[in-house]
Amino acid sequence: MRKIPIQDLAAGTKFNRSVYLDKDTVLVSSGQPITQQDLDRLKQFGISFVLTDGELVTERESAKPGAENSNYLDTNLPLSHNDETSARGKYILDKANGNKVEFTALFKDCFELVQKTYRSASEGKYTEIREFRDIAERITDHVKSNPQLPILLFAHSHSGYYLYSHICYATFFSILLGTYLEFSRPKLIDLAIAAIFADMGMVTVPEEVSEKKTALTELDHKTIKRHPVTGYQILTQRLKLKNSLAIVALQHHEAVDGSGYPQKITSNEMEELTRVFMIADQFSAMIATRPYRPAFLPYDAMKLMISVNVNRFDLKMVRLFLNKLGMFPIGSGVLLSDNRTGIVIDSNKDKPLRPVIRITKDVEGNRLRLLEFVDLMIDLNTYIQKAIPFSQIY
């Protein structure tokens, strides 16, 4: 990919291939315009260039059929209705759009720090804990000030090594749940540090086991099930992480009903931070593609967590996670009962099946050139027919 200096870009610039912050982190997808907010944020965070394999898309090419703007965060389109639901929807998308570059840069920094630290640990070299406090504080402050974060999390495209990206996703979802639980800022920062280190033991698991595409053998399972203990030992003995945070690495594969591992403890023996991270860790893992299975849709992941796997988690916490994100989580794609397509942008309290949706395609599957929103708590004749992959929203 070639480097494009930021000063060579203007608001509205489009490329026919995705534009990246680095080789793994997408800033905007193909055909999606770079906004002035994007440019301002890139300069604010000291990012001097972006990467792409694409060519500039001219206005004439943009006007061709099938070349419609696919930016789900574009709020420059005219509103279809001048009502309270439309004002609420536009405000949410404006806020998410304003935080997009900061989130993308923050996720990139988290990934790079995790990658460096875990790779060093696999070679017997260990990082000073204080390096992680800064990223933990930044993640905490970003999540607390950005209620629209789930929209960005589900849309974020990162192609880096699974373990490192999973840790970052699980950390963001942990702080999101901790915020819902009204944890103090110091407690959220501790949670972020614990989450970042929770899978440290995986550095001792051979990649041919952790990334295996076929069924795991009994020996493979035993190897993987050792990682909570080895991780806890590395964190306490080598990195000198305080026990109240390192314990999350030891306990995060336990279950509140005592069916987990390695100690088979129950809920009252688990640390509160562990019970938060367990939910975020499981949800993040389920919505990611793995060598042996495709990614679960966010709806399917949520459904499994509150049904088949419900005995694994703190019931109060998982219910809060559901009520805040929704059964069709914020940021996920849906097909409505009238065959319109959309993306969930907000939830309604205690009504997880009736969120607020931005409509992206009409009943005939044509992309909308207007900003149209529907609140299913107001439009009671419409309901969600099914969840759809993010790739089908446009």
From TrEMBL:
- Signal peptide position in this chain? none
Source domain of life is Bacteria
Q: Name one Pfam family in it.
A: HD_5
Q: Which CDD domains does the annotation name?
A: HDc
> Membrane spanning segments where?
none
Recorded hits in InterPro entries, A to Z, give:
HD/PDEase_dom, HD_GYP_dom
Which stretches make up the HD-GYP domain? Answer: 141-337
Protein name, as recorded? HD domain-containing protein
Look up and give the organism this protein is from.
Leptospira ilyithenensis
